[in-house]
Amino acid sequence: MAIQVELLDQTKDPMKSLYIAYRTAYSSLTPMQINKRIESGKITREKMEEFIERRLQTGHGSPLEQVWFEFGIAGVSRSFSHQFVRHRVGISFEQQSQRYVKFKDARFPYTVPQSVQRAGKAEQMEAAFEELGKLYQELLDAGVPAEDARFLLPNAASTNFKITVNFQELLHICDLRLCTRTQWEFRKVAAMMRAEVNRSVPELGMYLQPKCGERRWGYCDEDYEAWEACPIGRKRPHKRDMFKIFDSHRKGELIPLDAADFKLIEREDSGVA
Ligand SMILES: Cc1cc2nc3c(=O)[nH]c(=O)nc-3n(C[C@H](O)[C@H](O)[C@H](O)COP(=O)(O)OP(=O)(O)OC[C@H]3O[C@@H](n4cnc5c(N)ncnc54)[C@H](O)[C@@H]3O)c2cc1C
């Protein structure tokens, strides 16, 4: 079954909402006065974007909780959903129930991973699911409630979600789940959520990156071997290497050329690789 992700609704004007939230923290003006200035055009979109961009470079994250997105997510597996619902802060889930929704006609929708197809085992997997579907139906027909008949259903069985997530948590989910180490299905859903936000609010969508992205931490904290194997690893540094360089700098082995943008050069005798 194909995965579907759709942005159903969102904060009416996310940039305005964020701007008022951040400005309130740093201004003698009331939020109502700030709102009036925006409405009158005194504060332009460009000004708001620039201010928000600077705030996003700091650790001041709580205003991001005031912007929310609602998604419909369909055709995902229970393997995915087990991982998804572990996120518990700033996100609210409604998931299709296997107690109240009975699969009909001895069939249930499911996902066969590409790796199984590549291994030439898809047909066997599908045959096993067909048998499970038949037995599931027999259990229902014998009066077993759906909540018990579902004990037969595999992790591959499909499910649907309606979720609301705030921008702070969506950033966090993308930090973790756009990483190349993430399970493929979760990575796909995270990428599809990002695409939806990008379509609607590109000014915010651009911050939805894996944690090593230049607009997030900028470095990788996964294990070193994983970083070496990662295609993004050719562009983004590993935390261990960054600290090595920092230690060398502290020991005077590296000379800062321009402290403003942390350009460093190696001394000829430093021996730092
Ligand atoms: C690569 C990977 C492998 C994983 N492997 C496993 C595994 O083998 N087994 C397993 O059980 N899980 C595993 N997980 C799931 C993981 O442990 C988390 O449960 C999941 O990523 C949810 O993230 P979160 O804890 O950041 O929760 P979120 O709800 O997304 O929380 C967001 C942030 O809020 C803060 N926060 C949330 N709750 C609290 C709290 N109660 N107290 C204080 N601060 C809080 C934390 O800073 C947290 O990072 C894995 C996750 C990843 C990304």
Overall description:
By secondary structure, the protein is α+β, with helices and mostly antiparallel strands. It has a domain at 224-266. Helices cover 44% and strands 15% of the residues. The strands form 2 sheets. It has a 4-stranded antiparallel beta sheet. It has a two-stranded antiparallel sheet with strand order 5-6. The radius of gyration is 24 Å and the shape is flat. The model is unreliable at 263-273 (pLDDT under 50). Flavin-adenine dinucleotide binds next to helix 8.
Distinctive features:
273 residues; alpha+beta; four-stranded antiparallel beta sheet; two-stranded antiparallel ribbon; flat; disordered C terminus; binds flavin-adenine dinucleotide
Lateral strand order in the biggest sheet? 1-2-4-3
Named once each, the bound ligands are: flavin-adenine dinucleotide
**What is the strand tally?**
6
CA radius of gyration is: 24 Å
**Secondary-structure content class:** alpha+beta
Count of alpha/pi helices: 12
Weakly predicted, low-confidence segments: 263-273
Average per-residue pLDDT, rounded, comes to: 92
What's the helical proportion of residues?
40-55%
% residues in beta strands: 5-15%
Order of helices and strands: EHHHEHEHHHEHHHHHEE
| Spatial separation of the terminal alpha carbons | 49 Å
Shape: flat
Characterize the largest beta sheet: strand count, sense, and whether it forms a barrel: 4 strands, antiparallel
